[in-house]
Amino acid sequence: MNRCGVFDSGIGGVSVAKEILKAKIFDEIIYYGDTARVPYGNKNESTIIRYSLEAAEFLKNFDIDFLVVACNSASSVAIDELKKELSIPVIGVIEAGVEAIKQEDKNKNILLIGTRRTISSQKYQTLLKNEGFNNIISIPTPLFVPLVEEGIVEGEIVDRVFELYFSEIEKEKIDIVILGCTHYPFLEKSFKKHFPNAKLIHSGQAIVSLINKRFDIPTKKNCKIKFFASDNIEEFRIKAKEWIK
Amino acid sequence: MNRCGVFDSGIGGVSVAKEILKAKIFDEIIYYGDTARVPYGNKNESTIIRYSLEAAEFLKNFDIDFLVVACNSASSVAIDELKKELSIPVIGVIEAGVEAIKQEDKNKNILLIGTRRTISSQKYQTLLKNEGFNNIISIPTPLFVPLVEEGIVEGEIVDRVFELYFSEIEKEKIDIVILGCTHYPFLEKSFKKHFPNAKLIHSGQAIVSLINKRFDIPTKKNCKIKFFASDNIEEFRIKAKEWIK
């Protein structure tokens, strides 16, 4: 039995779990959302590290063989500590996102968006620069999270928010948009509309590609998922089951 | 020395502390923002009660004579427990808000807005009905908080969000708008524009009136304020000092 733990500060990481589930590379996925302390994006580094280690501790109870950090804020500041503390493979959405575009032309124009914490941590930018990319624009876009949480993923309000954040960039010149927050894939339609020439980098798909590349895990017949949360468990399960469809 | 503790899940309660500071009814205000676990509005009742008791515990270290719960979510679910646990007067924004309109004509049309938790707790609605008010419309408006946090308090995006939430009500018929979240006073201009005939009930002003009415506290010559937070303390102090101006 191959079991994968996936954690996020809240429900956003379900977009990642959904892709892992579809890929059937594990028999079971245990998802943990730290809803008692969501969001991580506006919290301090040491606090995020502490919360991440506690989340990993919770998941270890399920004998997981693999840990996916489906939270960009946690991946940007806590991934090294998690790798140090755990004896199983740990994989984060940031390294997966960078891996997904590694083979692209280094002159391509990359737009990186995420929470304030993810952007200011410079984790993505450093990894991208190490790969040779130089044309990187990074913009924190914190309003997208509450919009997705409210189910507002297209239409006038979303368009205005796109204008607010991206009025100063030439949108048609962007080749790659890295969706650096697990909530953002739910806005895919709007991203395609505003960035018609860009390839969208989705954390969930990037994680699956990275797992397939690095670990030779045979496809399973079935894959199940169980949801846990640190607060509002029932409400969380209902929403998660809806989002994973 | 009269010392007042004020707590909120984050920075919103600064709109309340600001009014208490201006009123000079205490020598010192100790403000505590539970930024490590903000926001409370999407958390479970028992979790909010636990967090609120911990916040009160922290403030007790400063020998406070008075506690103001400047958080609508905490006031809606934890006020009874706080009153039971503390031997000093405890006052919440919800009772203050209701007290502020007690003398109004009972047929007036009231619009109550707040976080999902505040609205679903029915605390405001129950107190208003007990006072004889019947024409109450209550709407959760969660997007206002991130907008204020981002400093977006008027303009097109805000107008669209007003349309989203209030398209089905006759705005000119609203007599009273209860701003049931401490972030909302920062949107005052937009509320005045969209609800031209309404009196706005602001938690901070309501708290000051209630303290003056219930407790005979002589005005002080000066009042100081100190800010504490459970996370990102320096960042919080900078923002709080800006907001309190």
* Percent of residues in β-strands of chain A: 15-25%
Structural class by secondary-structure content of chain A: alpha/beta
The assembly state of the depicted protein chains is homodimer
Largest interface: A-B, 23 and 23 residues
Largest sheet of chain A: 5 strands, parallel
Distance between the termini of chain A: 24 Å
Residue share in helix of chain A: 40-55%
Mean pLDDT of chain A: 95
Q: Number of DSSP strands of chain A?
A: 9
Total number of helices of chain A: 11
Order of helices and strands of chain A: EHEHEHEHEHHEHHEHEHEH
Q: Describe the global form of chain A.
A: globular
Uncertain runs of chain A are none
Write down the Rg of chain A.
17 Å
Biggest sheet strand line-up of chain A:
4-3-1-2-9
Tell me briefly what this model is.
Chain A is α/β, with parallel strands linked by helices and 245 residues long.
Describe the protein.
Two copies of one chain form a homodimer. By secondary structure, chain A is of the alpha/beta class. Helices cover 45% and strands 18% of the residues of chain A. Chain A has eleven helices and nine strands. Chain A has helices at residues 14-23, 45-60, 72-85, 93-101, 116-121, 123-130, 144-149, 156-166, 188-194, 203-214, 233-243; strands at residues 3-8, 28-33, 66-69, 90-92, 110-114, 136-140, 176-180, 199-201, 224-229. In chain A, the strands form two sheets. Chain A has a five-stranded parallel sheet with strand order 4-3-1-2-9, with helices on both faces. Chain A has a four-stranded parallel sheet with strand order 6-5-7-8, with helices on both faces. In chain A, helix 3 links the parallel strand 3 and strand 4. In chain A, helix 1 (14-23) crosses helix 10, helix 4 (93-101) runs parallel beside helix 6 (123-130) and helix 4 (93-101) packs across helix 10 (203-214). Chain A is globular, with a radius of gyration of 17 Å. Chain A starts with a strand and ends with a helix. The model of chain A has no long low-confidence stretch (mean pLDDT 95). At the A-B interface, helix 7 and helix 8 of A face helix 8 and helix 9 of B.
